[in-house]
């Protein structure tokens, strides 16, 4: 785990994932395209997907550490490579798909 990652950062990303999901639901509801049956479903999504995003980031950091690499590639300079931009999605996207089928 890099020194820049903190429990406060994890908590903020967790709250942000729930809050962001609720904001999107409010936007889609205002447009007449409510994607969820109730307010609790996006909260469940945020509770499940928030930690998965953090876990994807940590898994990618572990792989880079094992390979003794600072960046995951030369693409997207300044961001650490494309994998650094997508690491949270790697674990969260498949679960989001399964949640969309279940809920």
Short description:
The chain is mainly alpha-helical and 103 residues long.
Structure description:
- With 103 residues, this protein is an all-alpha fold.
- The chain has one domain.
- The protein contains 3 helices and no strands.
- It has helices spanning 7-30, 40-66, 82-102.
- Helix 1 crosses helix 2 and helix 2 packs antiparallel against helix 3.
- The chain is elongated.
- The chain starts with 6 loop residues before the first helix and ends with a helix.
- The mean pLDDT is 78.
Summarize the helices and strands and which ones pair or pack.
Blueprint: H1 7-30, H2 40-66, H3 82-102
Helix pairs in contact: 1-2, 2-3
Low-confidence stretches: none
What is the H/E string?
HHH
Give the integer mean of the pLDDT values: 78
| Rg, alpha carbons | 16 Å
Q: How many strand units? A: 0
Tell me about the biggest sheet?
Answer: none
Domain module count: 1
Helix/strand-derived category reads mainly alpha
Q: How many helices?
A: 3
Strand content: under 5%
Alpha carbon gap, first and last residue: 34 Å
Share of helical residues: 55-70%
Q: What sort of overall outline do the alpha carbons produce when their principal axes are compared? A: elongated
């Amino acid at each position: 785990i890099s020194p820049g990652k903190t429990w406060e950062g994890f908590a903020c990303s967790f709250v942000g994932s729930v809050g962001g999901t609720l904001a999107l639901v409010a936007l889609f509801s205002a447009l007449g395209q409510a994607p969820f049956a109730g307010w609790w479903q996006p909260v469940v999504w945020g509770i499940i997907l928030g930690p998965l995003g953090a876990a994807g980031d940590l898994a990618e950091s572990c792989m880079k550490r094992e390979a003794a690499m600072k960046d995951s590639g030369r693409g997207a300079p300044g961001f650490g490579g494309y994998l650094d931009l997508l690491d949270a999605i790697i674990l969260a996207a498949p679960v989001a798909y399964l949640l969309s089928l279940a809920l």
